[in-house]
Write a structure and sequence with these properties.
By secondary structure, the chain is α+β, with helices and mostly antiparallel strands. 27% of the residues lie in helices and 22% in strands. The protein has a domain of 251 residues. A hairpin with a 3-residue loop joins strand 15 and strand 16. The N and C termini lie far apart (70 Å). InterPro entries: EDR2_C (IPR009769).
């Protein structure tokens, strides 16, 4: 009897200990839920405040800082990103990149973590705490809104493995209409700094020449943004030039997840608009010598001295790279009054691509990555407002190099292309 009694007591004590542990764990969960609710209320209040005014969701002063020397704009850091983390790739970067441990990187991207951990799943399925289940689901819902690494957002499709450049978008003559296509456009349709810009601040149409001409374009989806995308695409063989790379690849990395104010990282689901250009056969005759030298200085990652007060500074010449973009068919989008005002104000407004750009030099190509994921919250919020209507848009895109001396004006075009009504939901993920 004594032995049986001791066993009974020990089991009873053990059971009470287990119950107490459960109570402690659920108490911790309640505290976490309360913190999550307070964060959610703060997030909700901030969103309400942003939406309280007509232009509150697009603050042009915060989204794009105005240049001191003209009405061009600078691309800006994301809201909470440290500028010291940005890196400009050197042309000497090897194809076989290495990680911090010195091991060769095989080109595979890290897996996207699930929004719900194994412990959370266990608590949700537990029949012992129905109240905790509702609280946990509320907390997970809030975390899902803030996090955007949802691995199941894109429908499962076979990954593209080293596709040929230009295999996803068709060529379309400018005078015809075709969705999911690209068209060549004249460089002279873009307005750039004119010959007397430093005196009268007037823009003129660019000279009708460009260093690179378009020959193809692609759309690829990805769970994480893809850097140096030319490694995963089969580029054509084009006669090389001694002065400049024969192919220019422009990789526009565009997010497809909601813009979050308190975004911890600048990566997630998105699309890569990849534009391919080939070196113009007559560029050495058509373009001024100083502009050809500027292109070489960008490719070779040279620096320049910039006069300033109280001291001069040394800047990378790549900081002169400037984006020109415009919506051609705004009347087809049925824009609201606010959206029309924004479009009229900022359409075709030049933007210096720094610091959200990276550069890669290959054997016969030069790649420029323009990372929209790292733009400020308000800039990404503006793009998100047009995201659902992207398949209705005709967009012109071009690159130029900013000129700050009268003798080097007018500015010339590096490249330009038109994208016609791209429906990104029709495309597949790129295998990397």
């Amino acid at each position: 009897m004594g032995a049986c009694g001791s066993k009974f007591l020990s089991k009873k004590k053990l059971k009470s200990k287990r119950i107490s542990k459960r109570r402690v764990s659920f108490n911790k969960l309640d505290k976490i839920d309360e913190c999550g609710k307070r964060d959610a209320r703060c997030h909700s209040n901030s969103s309400t405040l942003l939406a309280s005014k007509e232009f509150a969701w697009f603050d042009c002063c915060s989204a794009l800082d105005q240049s001191e020397i003209d009405d061009d704009f600078y691309s800006v850091h994301d809201d909470f990103e440290d500028a010291s983390t940005l890196r400009v790739a050197s042309p000497r970067d090897s194809f076989n990149q290495k990680d911090q441990n010195g091991d060769a990187w095989n080109g595979q991207l890290p897996c996207v973590a699930s929004a719900m951990s194994s412990d959370d799943k266990a608590r949700v399925s537990s029949p012992r705490a129905p109240g905790a289940k509702r609280k946990l689901l509320s907390r997970l819902s809030f975390k899902f809104k803030e996090g955007h690494n949802n691995q199941n957002s894109f429908p499962p499709k076979v990954l593209l493995q080293r596709p040929k450049a230009g295999s996803s978008l068709s060529f379309c003559p400018l005078e015809k209409k075709m969705s999911n296509s690209w068209s060549p456009i004249e460089p002279s349709t873009f307005r750039v700094r004119g010959q007397n810009y430093l005196r009268d601040k007037k823009k003129d149409f660019a000279p009708n020449f460009a260093v690179y001409c378009p020959f193809a374009a692609d759309v690829f989806l990805s769970q994480r943004k893809i850097d140096h995308i030319a490694r995963f695409v089969d580029l054509p063989v084009i006669d090389s030039s001694e002065e400049l790379p024969s192919i220019l690849v422009v990789n526009l990395q565009i997010p497809l997840y909601p813009a979050a104010i308190f975004q911890g990282e600048n990566d997630g689901e998105g699309m890569n608009l990849v534009l391919y250009f080939k070196l113009s056969e007559s560029y050495s005759k058509d373009l001024p010598v100083h502009f050809q030298e500027h292109v070489n200085r960008i490719i070779n990652d040279e620096v320049e001295r910039v006069k300033g007060f109280p001291l001069d500074t040394i800047n990378s010449f790549r900081e002169r790279l400037k984006i020109l973009s415009r919506l051609v068919n705004g009347e087809d989008l049925h824009l609201s009054t606010t959206e029309k005002k924004i479009l009229n104000t900022y359409n075709e407004k030049p933007v210096l691509s720094r610091p959200q750009h990276e550069f890669y030099l290959g054997e016969n190509y030069f790649e420029i990555d323009l990372d929209v994921h790292r733009f400020s919250y308000l800039s990404r919020k503006t793009f998100a407002a047009f995201q659902d209507r992207f398949k209705l848009c005709k967009l012109d895109f071009g690159l130029t190099i900013q000129e700050n001396k009268t003798e080097n004006l007018p500015e010339n075009m590096l490249c330009c292309i038109r994208l016609n009504e791209i429906d990104y939901s029709n495309y597949r993920q790129l295998g990397v």
